[in-house]
């Protein structure tokens, strides 16, 4: 590869999710990239200062843009600041490492690239991006999820 790839730490087996677990995800190509040192693992929520484990959180619908979005835990705590801090620092890490793309965990309020939960804590997905994905996309960094490894690899081939 000519450049590195940002990746959700939970996809590499790090137990950083809200429930203190990782994701069961193995892919031959991603494993190879990891062995070759091409991956930059990040967990935006932990980077933003949230603990492991932590309460699940969802983005609350808003009519405004990124700065108007609120992230609320199931128990009603406003964790927007931590999510935005995590997004900002993650973007800085992405830029410092000059990554060509990101492979982030689907459906997360930080890392989801196509869909997120709708804010009602009733398992309903809607089209939308997590807080970190919004920041990365604004900076022109393409974001794929763990079900889009083939698309990511097509993208990488076009870059090399
Ligand atoms: Fe994984 Fe992203 Fe959630 Fe961290 S914030 S646990 S990297 S999905």
UniProtKB/TrEMBL annotation:
InterPro entries: 2-thiour_desulf (IPR007553). This is DUF523 domain-containing protein.
């Amino acid at each position: 590869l000519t450049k590195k790839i940002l990746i959700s730490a939970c996809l590499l087996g790090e137990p950083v999710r809200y429930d203190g677990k990782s994701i069961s995800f193995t892919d031959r190509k991603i494993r190879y990239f990891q062995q070759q040192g091409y991956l930059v693992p990040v967990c935006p929520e932990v980077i933003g200062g949230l603990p492991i484990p932590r309460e699940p959180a969802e983005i609350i619908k808003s009519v405004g843009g990124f700065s108007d979005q609120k992230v609320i835990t199931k128990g009603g705590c406003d964790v927007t600041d931590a999510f935005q801090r995590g997004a900002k620092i993650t973007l800085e890490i992405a830029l410092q490492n000059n990554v060509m793309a990101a492979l982030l965990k689907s459906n997360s309020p930080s890392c989801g690239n196509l869909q997120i939960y709708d804010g009602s804590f009733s398992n309903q997905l809607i089209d939308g991006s997590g807080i970190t994905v919004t920041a990365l996309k604004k900076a022109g960094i393409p974001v794929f999820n763990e079900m889009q490894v083939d698309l990511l690899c097509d993208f990488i081939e076009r870059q090399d």
